[in-house]
Amino acid sequence: MKKYIYLTIFGFISLFLIYGCSWLKSYGKIRVLSRQEEKVSLQELEKNWQDYTIYYAGLSVETAAGIMFDPKNDDTTLIGDKWIKVEDKETLLELIGWIRTYIQFDPRLWRILGPDDQFYGYLFFAWGHAVIKAVDDKTMYMYDLESPLYIEDGTSPWEEES
Question: Which of 40, 142, 144, 148 could join 127 in a cystine, given CB atoms 3.0 to 4.6 angstroms apart?
């Protein structure tokens, strides 16, 4: 009888692991660039900003949490509900400047990769975790990011006051 109980438990654990692994395959990931790659890449992104569809997360430019760069010349797309489109270079430079002020959170430039390691774009941000989920073979959904300004003082604009 114990043998059947152990086999049943083992079966449930195996199913859970198999299901869990397939579930994780639908998420993208980010990989940090080395400091040298980052310096060159961020300069290139600023210089060639029109080659990207650019969005930022945050309530305003001054409280931006991150900047997402989606290359226009590829067949992949980055989307997100709360991301605001950047229309001009001046705004982009201002956003980069504000994010660089979050020095205690070490702002970095990251590559956005799909579940199969396909390149989707770049993310420049200073704090937290980025959650990226596959919508289909060519589209990744980037969830909203929270600004380090609200993390630092312990409050969040999304929390209700009591």
Answer: 148
Per-residue pLDDT band for 25 (boundaries 50, 70, 90) equals: low
Contact (CB, 8 A) for 152 and 145: no
Q: Is residue 89 part of a domain?
A: yes
Looking at the structure of the chain, the number of domains it has is 1
Cut 0.85: pTM above it = no
93: containing domain: 27-152
Residue 57 lies in a domain: yes
Distance of CA 77 to the CA centre of its chain: 13
158 found inside a domain: no
φ/ψ (deg, to 5) at 161: -80, 145
Reported in sequence order, the residue ranges of 25-138 that DSSP labels E, i.e. its strands, are 29-32, 52-57, 66-71, 77-79, 84-85, 108-113, 119-125, 132-136
The verdict on residue 44 lying in a domain is yes
Average pLDDT over residues 7-14: 64
Distance of CA 83 to the CA centre of its chain: 11
Reported as a single tens digit per residue, the pLDDT across 101-155 is: 988 888 999 999 999 999 999 999 987 788 999 999 999 999 998 777 766 554 4
